[in-house]
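Justification of resources, computational component.

The compute hours requested in this renewal are based largely on the per-chain cost of generating structure records like the one below. Each record pairs the submitted sequence with a full structure-token output. That output is archived, and it is also reused by downstream analysis tasks.
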Amino acid sequence: MAEEILSIITILIVGYFAASIALKIKMPLARLIGPIIAMGTLKILGVNIIAPGYLKAGVSIVLGCFFGMFFNKEVVNRMKTLILPCLFLIIANIIVTLLNGYVLTNNPLVDKATALFSVVPGGISEMAIIALSYQTDMVQVTTFHMARLLAVVLVVPPIITKIFANRNSHEETSQAVANNTEALLEETTEEKPWFIYILIGFIGSIIFYILNVPSNFIIGSLVAVIIFNITKKDTLLIAPPPRKLNDLAQMIMGGIIGLSFTQDSLVEIGQLFFPIFGITSLIIGGSVLIAWLISKIYKIDFLTSLMASIPGGLLPMIVMAEELKADVVVVSTLQIVRLLTAVLIIPMVYSFLL
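The structure output for this chain reads:
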């Protein structure tokens, strides 16, 4: 027990300072990647730190709640007008992900489960938590996702900005939806029982745990909050949990991921350089292809389709879409559908393959 408490304290302290440094140097995904690097370095150096199972469960529930909060009645109403593009995006993402997974499974250095979860276009924290349930190589999964997200964050935006710098505006809807989406993670000045979301997520995770659903804590929390959000009365106003709670959960998750590193990890990463580069290119290329098809089939302008399909995170893509005058209504709706596909639907498909 004393060792667990010491480990938790170490994860919190090291994670906090690592995240602070990463934020100061403006590292992308600082609260997640900073602790990953710091805790990974300590683990490689031989420091004995163990993340208790209940810490992973708690972080999973919190992250599931925050992600589920993006899905509400407004999003459902928007999806009704974009039902065909949404269905196409779901099916296309599943197909492209399975194809990328098949390509990576042919690499002898990567086992099947690790390969499949390394190519899912979801967030690092969510995919890491889900991958934990399938006995994957966390170092490899994390490395593939970090490469993909860093490429999307650092390489894709300058290219898109240069190509689409001058274009017509979708200004009114863009501003309204962007402001609304940003507000989802902002702290509120009203005194509302935000912990109700955490309680709902906890109940959902326990139900999924009893049902033995894979990745039960994050998926159970996610599904429970989504169901609550789209079925509750409009007069029932509940403040979102403080943004700092989400920051803390990401920081702890980064620390937990970092603990998966070993001295052999550095050798593995070096050996996987070309597979990582290749899969990252395939994922981004697949997203561009999906965007082009959506643009052609459903007559949505290509920039909007591209912003909706690129796996670079919900808020970054919405902010970029607003800056480039894309249609943020479409971008935000399809990005939420894409993320739900990555976190909820694709893992369910994988459960039949593993």
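The chain has 18 helices and no strands. Residues 273-298 form the longest helix (26 residues).
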